[in-house]
Amino acid sequence: MRPASTHADAACRGSVDAVLATRHAGPRALRLDYELVGPVDAPVVFVAGGISAHRHVAANALDATPGWAPGLLDAGRALDPARRRILAFDYIGADGSLDAPIDTADQADAVALLLDALGIDALHAFVGYSYGALVGLQLAVRHPRRLRRLVAVSGAHRPHPYAAAWRALQRKAVALGRLQCADEPGLSLARQLAMLSYRTPEEFAERFDAPPVLSNGRVRVAAEDYLDAAGAKFVARVPATAWLRLSESIDLHRVDPAAIGVPVSLVAVEGDPLVPLADAVALLEALGDRGRLRVLRSRYGHDAFLKDTDRIDALLASELALVEVASPSPSPASGVLA
User: Which residues are the active-site residues?
Assistant: First the structure.
């Protein structure tokens, strides 16, 4: 692993109070929590992850904990905070306080409100993975002047019906837990089911190819300890209401590719059951000369962005380089709230 960047001294974290006109629940008073790391005069790149991601992407001077994507901000990487100013926020609804339908368009509008509050006219780029890619696509439709290029990893213009069915079953697991007045067991099971869709059969064959064991008269397979640990870790930090509403948000997502107003770099993972390569190809075809597609084969499937760091970094470096070629960097942030 590369050493962590030592250029995180220009880091700040703060909150912005805003009123957001949500698509399905009307105007809502919200607090947008953000973290901004990197030199104040560097081009700003917004980084957004899956529905369990948050404003703390990687360790910095303010917070030494690893964050949700630690390797991608290491020294020398495409997203090294020594060269770019990295902005991230907590998704609206991520704290569980908004028990109403949330649209990816709402998240994009929240990003625009945050940029206004921070005095950022336009982002150098928006890098979105999974749910973050959906938000980025909405931003490119609703606020195209706010970003120079979108890099959308493992996300498309609409949810695949198979993936939507998978998420619906996960939400039913949470509902069953709530019938027993127990959010945590249901949410843990939902997360364990999700892990099977994030990874690939190839990875499970490599890691868990062992005979089952008998425990208290019942069969226990090799992957169960891993799945149980994933579920326990998840319920310790994510409220059930937040997960339910953000899971629904993925299935509410719809974008008209013809309305996308910026260049888009798509990254698809071959074998990803949640965002099939065919959906990325369909989006590319609809984008025409505004789109590029890079295809990655990874045993980590949908989680390649988080696990296959070297290869993802190489793709990010080549796609972000297109922004420098296409246009000068936007003005750096001013009036940042600490």
Answer: 130, 272, 302
How does pLDDT run across 262-290, given as a tens digit for each residue? 999 999 999 999 999 999 999 999 999 99
The pTM is what?
A: 0.92
CB neighbours of residue 1 within 10 Å: 8
Give the count of alpha carbons within 13 A of 18, CB side only: 21
SS3 call for 332: coil
Report the candidate in 306, 264, 5 with the shortest Cα–Cα distance to residue 126: 264
Instruction: Quick: pLDDT tens for 139-192.
Output: 999 999 999 999 999 999 999 999 999 999 999 999 999 998 889 999 999 999
Query: CA-CA distance, 195 to 61, in Å (whole number)?
Result: 31
Q: Residue 306: name the closest of 120, 53, 10 by CA.
A: 53
Element (H, E) at 24: none
- Buried residues in 246-268 as b, exposed as e (16+ CB within 10 A): bbbbbbbbebebeebbbbbbbbb
